[in-house]
Structure formats: C-alpha cells, structure tokens
Amino acid sequence: xxxxxxxxxxxxxxxxxxxxxxxxxxxxxxxxxxxxxxxxxxxxxxxxxxxxxxxxxxxxxxxxxxxxxxxxxxxxxxxxxxxxxxxxxxxxxxxxxxxxxxxxxxxxxxxxxxxxxxxxxxxxxxxxxxxxxxxxxxxxxxxxxxxxxxxxxxxxxxxxxx
Length: 162
Prior knowledge:
- The protein is of the alpha+beta class.
- The protein has one domain (2-127, 138-154).
- The protein is 59% helix and 15% strand.
- The protein is built from four helices and four strands.
- The protein has a four-stranded antiparallel beta sheet.
- A hairpin with a 2-residue loop joins strand 1 and strand 2.
- Helix 1 crosses helix 3 (91-114).
- The longest helix is centred in the N-terminal third of the chain and has 28 residues, at 2-29.
- It is globular.
- The relative contact order is 0.18.
C-alpha cells in the first residue's frame, strides 16, 4: 500500500527541502526588511508572516500560530491519507496534492520552529503596487491548486470516476 504512494511523498519532501533551503539562505544573507532588486518587478526581501495568506490575522496576538499549525497538520494528514487512496489511480490529483503537501509541510515547519513563516519573494509593479511577499512553499501550494483545477477541467474521467 505504501510503496505506491512513496513517489508522491518523495516529491513533497523535495519541495519541503527546497523551501527550507531557500529560507535558510535568505535568513543567512539578508536582514529583516532588506530588499535586493533582481528584476524591475522582482526583489528578494526578508519578511516574517505570523498570519496566513496575505497576512490574515497577523496581528492577532499569537494564538493564530497554533490555530494555523493545527489546520496545516490536519491538511498534511488528510492529503497523506488521500494520496494513499489514489496514488496509482489518479496521477494528476496525486501530483497536485504532492505540491500542496510539500508547501503545507514547509510553512508548518516554520510556524512550529520559528513562530512565523519566512517569506522572501517580492513581486511589484514599479514602486507603487506590491504583491504580498511569499516563499517556495506558497508557490508549491499555488501550483498544486492550479494543477488540481486544470485536472478537473481537462483530464477525462473514466467510467468509475477516476
């Protein structure tokens, strides 16, 4: 049973390690708030997010760390269970869930170890519009959701719904 799901867990682990390594590098070389322009629309910057997406509940006083950690842990368990069920039957769904799983583990690690999520990718338009900073884990989650949406629209389902 676990043999068929191992490749998906390995992909999630690779994404987690990539997320962890990039966060370690950014923390080693940048001061908090420092920005390094790389392209006219892209900077590296070190930011901490105690909230969720778009800093939701970032100023809530600390309880949100545990709240979002419990949610992430539930997501990790739920996705792992789902991967066991569909590992060989639906490769598109397994791929998308692996990306989401790797990202969820990356941000969960940050919350548990640091009390905040380390963000460092800053996209902007000129100097007037900034997208909230994010990281490799957030990117993996986004790619996973996009893959899941594409799968739901474009991948033909078989008779059994798989």
